[in-house]
Amino acid sequence: MTNFECKRVVVTGLGAITPIGNNLADYWAGLLSGRNGIAPITLFDPSKHDCRFAGEVKGFDPHEYLDRKEAKRMDRFAQFAVSASKQAIADAKFVINDLNAEQVGIIIGTGIGGIKVLEDQQEVYLNRGPDRCSAFMIPMMIANMAAGLTAIHTGAKGPNNCTVTACAAGSNAVGDAFRLIQRGYAQAMICGGTEAAVTPLSFAGFCALRALSTRNDDPQKASRPFDRDRDGFVMGEGAGILILEELEHALSRGARIYAEVVGYGMTCDAYHMTAPVPGGEGAFRAMQMALKDASLTPDLVSYINAHGTSTQANDVTETAAIKKALGESAYKVAISSTKSMTGHLLGGSGGIEAVATVMAVANDQIPPTINLENPDEGCDLDYVPHTSRSSKVDVALSNSFGFGGHNVTLAFKKYV
């Protein structure tokens, strides 16, 4: 693939702000117990919307990580990113200082960015005039600010970027960070995804698309990937962050290693603005590419954290893509959609799902797909329904697919 030696890349730290837990321990415990994070919306009055529930982050206090002045100048999506990044750095016991700052980079993806600030400032503009709009509106709103502010608050001066590939953004961030370390452009990367789009305008747009579930009478049953009674996805919010390090660098400081990053595949459907190509050709190629990049054969895959959105189009299409990518091994691999518990974090989903996938590899535990009561006729694989499973996980894939036809697969394996 290249004329130079690719460096090995490992995961040494994890952070998570999610609808089922605001730190790694609570998030992982929530996944294994099948905790349901979906509930009626409290962040705004949703009474005029067709969908009135979401996977909100509960009990989050940004002042645990930021002083009040700093927090006030950040949109919620950036607060999540900085907070989860600080968690991950602490988890990795990683110290950023003058000696290594230029070798530590950041890539944090988001699908929508600071939409709450945009909505609030539009109200100010309409009701009080342009002179009353905040001087911080633009820097609070723009999508790259999660990565930029994380650098400011951690001191990381290496490569810094923001991936904005809709629901694949968090996974693209992890994959791009992997490549930078692999090819020697950084020793360590802070990477993942963040989103805070549970807002009136955001919900109005997704409701107009008829993409969201409208099971308002029973929100906890609304996110039901691969089930024949699914009627749309459920919005979530939060952030998932990983610390990736070059292997020798991690070993030299005695770091704990959760897993090794071994493959990254990304493709495009080139088909439709919002719908996946029938048959999952683009998703199949992303999985195939990740396996090839990792020099792995399909029979070695133990677990797939599916994109699994609980929409009519995705779940059947992803199932078909898995069958094509893995062949007969598709019927032997454990698959689950953790979105059944957290909802769909859009650009943040790849981040928290990469965290879940790494934890599955590290702990030989597979989270369940809750609410899977009647599998769809086209969804006939092992989706680990209802309860978590103890099983050896040597190799795991994490899938993320976004509007615009973006497809990403990440491959992780046990470090040996």
Automatic annotation (TrEMBL):
Domain Ketosynthase family 3 (KS3): 6-414
Protein's pathway: Lipid metabolism; fatty acid biosynthesis
Its EC number(s): 2.3.1.179
Listed PROSITE patterns: KS3_1, KS3_2
Catalytic function, reaction form: (9Z)-hexadecenoyl-[ACP] + malonyl-[ACP] + H(+) = 3-oxo-(11Z)-octadecenoyl-[ACP] + holo-[ACP] + CO2; a fatty acyl-[ACP] + malonyl-[ACP] + H(+) = a 3-oxoacyl-[ACP] + holo-[ACP] + CO2
SUPFAM superfamilies for the chain: Thiolase-like
Alphabetic keyword roster: Acyltransferase, Fatty acid biosynthesis, Fatty acid metabolism, Lipid biosynthesis, Lipid metabolism, Transferase
InterPro entries found in the cross-reference section: 3-oxoacyl-ACP_synth-2, Beta-ketoacyl_synthase, Ketoacyl_synth_AS, Ketoacyl_synth_C, Ketoacyl_synth_N, PKS_Beta-ketoAc_synthase_dom, Thiolase-like
Top EC class, one word: transferase
Presence of the UniProt keyword Membrane in the record: no
GO molecular function: 3-oxoacyl-[acyl-carrier-protein] synthase activity
Role description: Involved in the type II fatty acid elongation cycle. Catalyzes the elongation of a wide range of acyl-ACP by the addition of two carbons from malonyl-ACP to an acyl acceptor. Can efficiently catalyze the conversion of palmitoleoyl-ACP (cis-hexadec-9-enoyl-ACP) to cis-vaccenoyl-ACP (cis-octadec-11-enoyl-ACP), an essential step in the thermal regulation of fatty acid composition.
Family label: Belongs to the thiolase-like superfamily. Beta-ketoacyl-ACP synthases family.
Protein name per UniProt: 3-oxoacyl-[acyl-carrier-protein] synthase 2
